[in-house]
Structure formats: C-alpha cells, structure tokens
Amino acid sequence: MRVRLKDVADHAGVSVKTVSNVVNNWEYVTDATRERVQKALDELGYRPNLSARSLRTGRTNLIALALPRLHEPYFAELADCVVRAAEDHGLTVLISQTDGRREREQQVVSGFRPQFIDGLLFSPLALEWDDLEEIPGHPPVVLLGERLAAGGAADHVAVDNVAAAQRATQHLVELGRKRIAVIGAPPSKTARTASLRLEGYKRALRKARIRLDKQLLLPVNQLHRADGAAAMATLLDLAPPPDAVFCFNDLLALGALRTLQERGVAVPSEVAVIGFDDIEESRFCSPSLTTISPDKKALAGLAVAALVQRMSVAPDAAPQELHAGFELVERESTMGRRA
Amino acid sequence: MRVRLKDVADHAGVSVKTVSNVVNNWEYVTDATRERVQKALDELGYRPNLSARSLRTGRTNLIALALPRLHEPYFAELADCVVRAAEDHGLTVLISQTDGRREREQQVVSGFRPQFIDGLLFSPLALEWDDLEEIPGHPPVVLLGERLAAGGAADHVAVDNVAAAQRATQHLVELGRKRIAVIGAPPSKTARTASLRLEGYKRALRKARIRLDKQLLLPVNQLHRADGAAAMATLLDLAPPPDAVFCFNDLLALGALRTLQERGVAVPSEVAVIGFDDIEESRFCSPSLTTISPDKKALAGLAVAALVQRMSVAPDAAPQELHAGFELVERESTMGRRA
C-alpha cells in the first residue's frame, strides 16, 4: 500500500504540513524537525508522487544538463557529480549531448520549455549570448565550465583556468625543465578555456624567465587521445625536442604518453608530461599521469546550488562568477616511479 | 526572420504539405523529393517549431536513455552512439543515470510520463519485470544490454555474451595458455551478463579439455579499475599464478594491467590479458589491450529502431530479441609488441 504523507506525519509526530515542507525541501523547518521527518520518510519508504507534486508546485523537479560530449571522461565524471548534487536538492537530471554544435545548442535551450524542466545547466561551445536572449521564455540557465562567446549575464561556474595552468607549468619549471611544450594550444580566439590556460602557461614562463618558443605550442582539432598522440610525434621531430609537455587535458596527455612509449622515450627523465582534468584513467595508466585536478564535486555543487537559487528565491539577482578549487596531483609522469 | 514551411516549399518548388511530410519524417515521400526539400531546408536554415509540432502530432520527439553509470566509459560511448542513432530518426535523447538502484530505476519508468517522452531505452540492473507491469501508462520501453531480472516481455538488444566470452577465452587457449583466470565472475545469480560470460568461458575450457579451477574465478564488487587491480594482486599470490586473465570488462583489465606493471610481471609473456567492451582507452594504454569489441553502433541503431517501431507502427507486436555483432580485437596485451 502506498505510504501517504499522513502516515509519515503520524510516525514522526508532526503535522502533515511539516512533512510536506520537508518533502518539498522548503526552508522554514528546523534541522531537528527535518531530521525527524526524514527518518520517518526513510523508515516507511515514502516515495513522493512526482506528478501530483508537479501539478501543485508548478514544478517538474527535473533539470537538464547539456554537455558537448558524454564520451569524454571529464564530462562523464562531471555529469555524475551533477546527478549526485541535484539529488541532494530533490532534483532529477536529464542529460543532453550537444556535440558543441550551435544548432544543437540552440535546440537545447529552445526545446526545453518550462513545462518540461525547471532549469538548465549548460556547457556551451558554439552558442552566443544573442542566441540565448532571442529565445523567449527559456528556463533559468547556469553556465558550467564554458562561457558564452559574447559575454552576457548568466551565472558561470568554473575553475580559475589561468591560475591552474600557471601552477601546472610552474611544477615543470621546478623540476628544472626549460623546453616546455603545450599540446592543446587554442586554434582560434573562440577557444576560450584553451586561451585562459595558455595565458597561465605564459605567466609561469615569464616568472621563470624562460623565453616563449612558439614552435612548442601545438594546437589540436579535438581534445582526444589521437590528437595528443599525433601532436607528440610532431614535437619529438623538433631539434631539440621538448623536455616537458603540458597537455591541456588528460586525454591529450594519455595519447602523448602512448607516442612516447612507442618511440622509446623515457618518461619523465627525457620528457615529463602533465595533464589537466584528473580523470580516473590517469590514476591507473602506466606511468600514472601528473595532472591538475579540478574539484568536480565543488563545480557540480556550486552549479546546482546557483541554479536552485535562480529557480526559486532569486531569479533576477545579478549574475555570479563562481570558482571551484583545484589541486596539482603529482604522479609518475613527472615524478618517476617511487622505489 | 523566422523561416516558415511556405518559404521552404517555394524554394524547393513543392507543396507545403510535402515539406511538412519531410520535416515530420513521414514515409510517403520519394527519396528525390526528400533530398530536394532537405537541401532547401538546409539552405534557408529552417528550424522546426518543436512545441507546435508536439501539439500537432501528440509527440515530443524526445526519448529517454536510462543507464546505470555515465562515468563508465562503455556506457558513455554507448550513449554517444544512441544520441547519433536517434538523430537519424529526428529524435532528441535525454539521458538519466540510475546508479543501478531499484528506487531510481522505478523513478525513471514512472517519472517519465508520455507527455514528456515518446519512449524509453533502458539498461536496468535492479528493476524486475513486476515493477514495470505495475506502472500504468508508462511509455514504450526497449531494454539495452541488461534484461529485467524476472524475464518479461519487452524488446531486448544485446550482444551474444556467451559466444563473445567463448571467443575471448578461445583466443587465450590458442596462445597456449592453460591457467586462464576470470576477473568479474558473477557474485550472485542476479548478475546476468556476468553469468552469461562465465558460461562462454566454461564452454571454451570444455572444448579445449582444460579443467575448471574455481580458485581462478574472481568475483568483484564493482566493474572498476580499482577492483581489477585488487583482483589481479590476489591472483598473483596464487601458487602457481595464472598465465592469462579474462577480465569481464575493459576497466577491470586496465586495473589488472596496472598491478602487473607494478609487480614487474611481463605482459603478455608471463600473463596475457584480455578485456571486454573495447573502450577508447584500450587502444591507447601501454600495452594496448586485446578485447572483445561489441558493435556499439549496431547496438544503438537496433535499439533506437526497435523503439521507433514500438512508438509508431507496432506498439503491440511480440517482443523481439535482437543481437548486435562483436569482434575480437587483438592487441599487445596478448600478442606482444610488434617489431
């Protein structure tokens, strides 16, 4: 038999209204009461009637997450964190893959009417702010990772890419490397994240009084293993080759490691390698990969919290710029195998 | 200014009705006309008004894909194939992560009302057939990869897991291996895919007249790299250790390779390793991983086509069992580095 709110209220010794407040995640309930009600909900196995709730509140409790590519491990891991963060707010996440194509990105924003979803978390690659402004009645949007090409006014959650890239480059400098190459340099000015990372790299070189050698900056078409492998082959043909490589994501670095192994180049003694993302694979590959680890849980948590704010109490507040933390994770590809 | 169907019709020299038929992907249009209209649609940049279309056809043109874990590369790659296959039918995919928890799986089926989505592709881990029957008015469902625990009547798309596992084991036998271990043996009878793969392994051993040694069958809690690494350590402590390992997915195999490298065990000369899934990582790791490659494109294509059938012409047809192909991909972890 279905457990009703009344059953939970009796079990917890509170009013039905209080149970309802807890179930709907409203704020005017004390922590103690919330805990007592939650315990009763758990013990009785109460499942909310989602469509009734939707009718009552005018909400669907669904949010959408639109990402360029799910089969890139970084996005898949981030999506997982978003699903968990949303669950803490009683929200279910629907994920949509845009391939970074403008047409699909427009469709995501215009296709999700408010009667479908309460809000949208979005990592746009091609969309511009004008596109978003043009679409009447789109749901509240929070940008995750990437900004819109033409600035604009939406909450934006990311790591400090300049500082993180500077930290990565500085690590290679501290190991005594002088010819530090980049794989993943921005192919154009619209590659915003890559441009920020390049800026961090340049700052670290300037601080170490190392001259920038443009030969060592390799752009890539995509941020995949195959692109990293090809770029590394190009770098090894330079005379002299680099003694370190900063790859702008882990996939590129994993491809570069494969080329180094095929060519019989010792890592890290001849070429040290560092990545960016800290995907799970980087802990298990051989040699394991030194990388910048963005705090994905914090990114997801901040993004969902910002969206919940927009959806409820502060739809028209000034847009916020939110930064999640990062750390340098030192592994074998720069530090060598421990004895 | 918005491009209307009338504009496209004028441009292509056909009637508005014909353009509408093409846009709605209806079948009574010749290929030549369809091409001419598509060209006009592309040239004028026509974007369908989705909600108007939805009102007219009673369809949303959204389907949902519910998977256990997006951050497992196999599921992420499969999701990518499903998004592409659905696009060919003019459908947009929303992806939902269930974690394989029964409660979330129930929610997926009951939460997606027909007014949200036209159909559901589903890889259930915990849900039973009764759960699905109990939910009135759920959308058409096609099962992808995993079946429901208690049989039942829905279309099911998968690879032939028994045949594929037999092929993998036979490959190790052909290399002269005698002590072939398994990492990922079913921890319980509800692990249906693992049970099928174990059956294929046993068949290959029987055919080669190799006695089954239960010591060599290692169950795991999860199918992750860390579980594979730990299981490999256990196997290396056996006397004598195995001379080959069949891991029931690539992630387990990648973890096993890491342990072998840490312990200084030569791959494949001392221990040959084979996986299952052919995720992209397996092509780029060192040594690269021999694996069974399920035809993910075919899996996705068959699943979407079956769902489209259910949604339109044959909602009540007898349930089908559909198999996609697979192939053995021989790489360094069993064949060694080529000179």
Automatic annotation (TrEMBL), chains A, B:
User: Keyword set for this entry?
Assistant: DNA-binding, Transcription, Transcription regulation
Q: Which Gene3D superfamilies match?
A: 3.40.50.2300, lambda repressor-like DNA-binding domains
Please give the start and end residues of each transmembrane region.
none
| Superkingdom of the source species | Bacteria
Which SUPFAM superfamilies does the protein's record reference?
A: lambda repressor-like DNA-binding domains, Periplasmic binding protein-like I
The record's listing under PROSITE patterns reads: HTH_LACI_1 (PS00356), HTH_LACI_2 (PS50932)
UniProt entry tagged with the keyword Metal-binding? no
Tell me the protein's name. LacI family transcriptional regulator
The organism named in the record is Jiangella asiatica
